[in-house]
Amino acid sequence: MPIKINIYNQKAEAIGEMQLADKVFGMPANKNLVHQAVVAQMANSRQVLAHTKDRSEVRGGGKKPWRQKGTGRARAGSNRSPIWKGGGVTFGPRKNRNFSKKINKKMRKKAVLMALSDKVANGNLLVIEKLDIDGYKTKVFNKMIEGVEKVLNKSPKPEAGVKKTEGKAEKVNKKFKRSVLIINDPRRDGTGKKDEKVKYSGRNLAGVEIINLENINIVDLLKYKDLILTVESVKKLEGRYK
After folding, report:
1. Quick one: 229 exposed, middle or buried, by C-beta within 10 A (0-12, 13-18, 19+)?
2. Which of 115, 197, 198, 213 is 20 to 30 A from 186 (CA-CA)?
3. How many helices (H) and strands (E) does the chain have?
4. What is the strand order of the sheet 3-8 is part of?
5. Quick check: 227 and 210 in contact, CB under 8 A?
6. Bridging pattern class, strands 14-20 and 125-128
7. Residue range 162-184: average pLDDT?
8. Of 168 and 21, which is predicted with more confidence?
9. Mapping DSSP to helix (H, G, I), strand (E, B) and coil, where does residue 235 land?
10. Could you read off the pLDDT of 201-223 as tens digits, one per residue?
11. Are 234 and 20 in contact (CB under 8 A)?
């Protein structure tokens, strides 16, 4: 079944529509596969921070503390022994631990397609004609995002609510929380040069994440609620995964 979606300009005005590939944006969900892909990516990006030194790494300990016999004390060969204060650590965490997990390429690819399909099914995908900003201007970029949020039925204004606590009604403001992922292709057509105005204009906005097309991943797709793609990005995704 063909999937049709509107195309908007940077002013959040509908200027046409396009058909999405069913094999890319119409993939049925498999929770177990998506979970496996997320766990694998997070495990592979995990850094080993905790590291304790054993007796061979602790400084000092070159001289025997006292002679072997005749002192009445226990034998000691080094003051860096684990039983000495300031000595090495026995069975502590080491930096050579490996948390990586393997997942097949086809499984990882399928999980990404499921995440993209979920955005389409829930109405959280917006296709924009192009992202072209004149200069590095965060204010201009933020205005564009606000227009897009209105299209996605978002309200940036706080909504008043009532919260009951111990029999008393307290007025509470439910603050709007922005969660937008933008997948951009920074390479200009024909020139091969990167245009990073979008990246630097939006990197300081809270709740907005901008990644390049080649860095698309399952964790970012699930972390952010709304997804913005350009027409060129949609065509390249379909060409890559179709």
Report:
1. buried
2. 115
3. 7, 8
4. 14-20, 3-8, 125-128, 226-230, 180-184, 208-212
5. no
6. unpaired
7. 64
8. 21
9. helix
10. 988 999 999 999 889 999 999 99
11. yes
Per residue in 143-159, is it b (16+ CB within 10 Å) or e — as a string? ebbeebbeebebeeeee
Q: Which CATH class is domain 3-27+104-241?
A: alpha beta
How high is the pLDDT of residue 36?
A: 96
| Cβ-Cβ contacts under 8 Å for 65 (sequence gap 6 or more) | 76, 78, 79
Q: How does 178-211 read in b/e, with b if 16+ C-beta sit within 10 Å?
A: bebbbbbbbeeeeeeeeeebbbebbeeeeebebb
Give residue-wise pLDDT tens across range 95-125. 999 999 999 999 999 999 999 999 999 999 9
**C-alpha to C-alpha distance for 209 and 217, rounded to whole angstroms:** 13
- Residue 153 neighbours by CB under 8 Å, 6+ apart: 123
The torsion defined by the Cα of 164, 165, 167 and 168, in degrees rounded to 10, comes to -70
Q: Whole-angstrom Cα distance, residue 182 to residue 67? A: 70
